[in-house]
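Help!! Second protein's tokens look totally different from the first
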Amino acid sequence: MGVTGPTGPVLDRDEVDRALARLGAEHEAIETSLLALQDHAGRRLLEGADLTGVTRERWASAEASITLLWAYFDAYTATLRTAREIRARRRWSSRDDLAELTELLRGASVIVAGSAAATANAPTLAGTGRLSQQFTLAELVERMNELYASSLDMVVAADAVWSALPARIDLLAAELQRTRELAHSVGVRPGEHPAGDDLERITRTLTRLREEVVSDPLAYWTPTQGSSAPGGGRPDTTTYDREARALEDVRREIDAVLTVRQDAEARLVKLRDVLSRADRTLAEARSARGEVLAKIAASEVPAVSGPPTVLQEQLATAAEYRRHAQWHRLSPLLESLEQKAEDELLRARESLTAVTAPLAVRAELRGRLDAYKAKIARHGLAEDPLLVERYDAARRMLWSAPCDLRVAEQAVLRYQRAAAELLGPRVPQQGAPADRRGRT
């Protein structure tokens, strides 16, 4: 080091040479970055785009920043060139040369001037009331790094959105057009079918989305929280994803309508068969109810309703839709009818079961009575007078019409108890007669 000047100790020749080498490498790196930014596809698109919203505001600021960047770089270049010229005067720089070089390399020797138009939106000069500033080379590099990072961040973000969303929107729009044509072929149209209305809404949304993405890409950019790297983030595809899912739902519905067109006749035949089986089952239940009322006494027998005429009317409407190829109307009607027909068949079967329940109880009592008689016969007790008497009493009740099920069940139980007493000893029940031949 030499003597001390306004900027500190005067640099010696070796220090000057090392500083010039470092600044030269730094100058080359900055120039490469600026040229890359100048040639960036996103920047060129931004220059020629009709921007709106937040993108227009940020691009105006970024454009001014890029202009200022070049002004800074030119000033940096000029200062570096001057320093190299001074160093090149002599092989062994004089004390005055070294002092001058120290001032250039370390002092606030860089003056940046510009017009009001160029710096109106520049973040480093706006609001200062000045059109020029002085910097050290280190301060200038720091400012250039800041401007470059903010400008590149904006350019990369806009380019990322433009690279990702418009192409995807166009592909989805093409799929939407194919779906619209398919929907039209099966009668799914706006105002006539919900899926047709959905297609119109999706079309409007995608058209608006593409216009907004093209004119204001930064409105569809989500920065990565905590990231300081330029372009840290991702395109916001929320609206696109929602419409893509909606289109897929519509496509599935159209496929369902196409399926109806292919197998409508088979489904109508099956529907007629199910409803016919339900009608036959209800007719059987009505017939069985009459039989039960005639044969069973003291029993609540539920009423049997007739077949619902509304299903037959809807079935006729479905057949009419098929004849006129109104597949979009036939599809939901068939689905509804198929469920209702199955429900009707189930109701008819439940009605038959409820009506014939007393006959099933009588058949179970008859079977139980005969089973005990056979068991008694195997043990050689078939001729026991008490058992014969109680068997005959129970049988008369079960095979008479009308049959009182409650009385008949008690008669069968009396026969069972008597048979059990004969077949083996048992502990008398509380309140039961001690004599096994006691009559009740």
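Here's the second one for comparison:
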Amino acid sequence: MRGRLGGTSARAAQGHPHRAGHFFIRAKIRVVSAIDRPTGQPSQTYDSAFLKACRREPVPHTPVWFMRQAGRSLPEYRKVREGTAMLESCMRPDLVTEITLQPVRRHGVDAAIFFSDIVVPLKAIGVDLDIKPGVGPVVAQPIRRREDLAQLRDLTPEDVSYVTEAIGMLTGELGSTPLIGFAGAPFTLASYLVEGGPSKNHEHTKALMYGDPQLWADLLDRLAEITASFLKVQIEAGASAVQLFDSWVGALAPADYRRSVMPASAKVLQSVASYGVPRIHFGVGTGELLGLMGEAGADVVGVDYRVALDEAARRVGPGKALQGNLDPAVLFSTEDAVRGKADEVLAAAAGLEGHVFNLGHGVLPTTDPDALTRLVDYVHTRTQR
């Protein structure tokens, strides 16, 4: 099922992380879409276990990938990123390619996730922001008034040509392993822009949403356009699926989500519907929003670790696959405990129409990479059909 980097080759790389840390791909760029055009014939990723699960089709085993699988938990990632700022890393096709491939080599996961950051499209259109270590994205001029919207011009493919180049390199290396593109959802992007950085209470964001609903709607609509353009670039360059991350939307009540956020998220998801690639929608603390997030247009609803998958399926309703949802902290426990909790996730997923095994949030930075590799092997073996 896997391409060049799956199976034996991925295992062989595990013992030599230093090799991965210094290995930069110089592949000839090959730009394709997830469904080859204009013939409409499936690409080599079409029959992968990951895409089959997203389409709610029978799979040879439950597919596995991890949010933040390409990142600080890998020593080869820390080595290759040494001395390079986060946003610069996201704009260098050689680094993006190498970092995206590292967990596929090491863990043998069923999909790669494109290495980037949710604020990359904002930076690309000229928003004055930076990602500060230990803090996160910080915006120089927060959006609080209508005139502040002038910061948000349309995103063009030329603004993110490095994304197209990196995905072309990646699809040439990944073979039959799908690549997942991603973007931040309008609410989460808006929260960063309005607050000026990360926030626990989102007081400025909610004050704007409640106090000036028209400005709020215009802000989210503009962010929906930018996000849709960013996803289209990734799909047209070769991404086989996309995930819309709404990291902060769990701070909202369902009625507020439906009225003030859902229309913008739905606009993003609808904008890429014609491409025919699976659309995954994930948020943190969104147990009360799961049905609405599916209603917004997702093919796959990501579930965090707070809601069991069988209960999540009841809330989402039929016609959707689910993704999740092992607690990332479990990976710090014993191997027996990890397997036991993985079994609980798989048991809860037994009746689902489609299931992609993932964590209920991202890989924590101090996670032992070998624990992730063992988990992939266990899920694959446990669910072999």
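Reply: Different proteins will give different token patterns, so don't panic. The CA atoms of residues 290 and 316 lie 6 Å apart.
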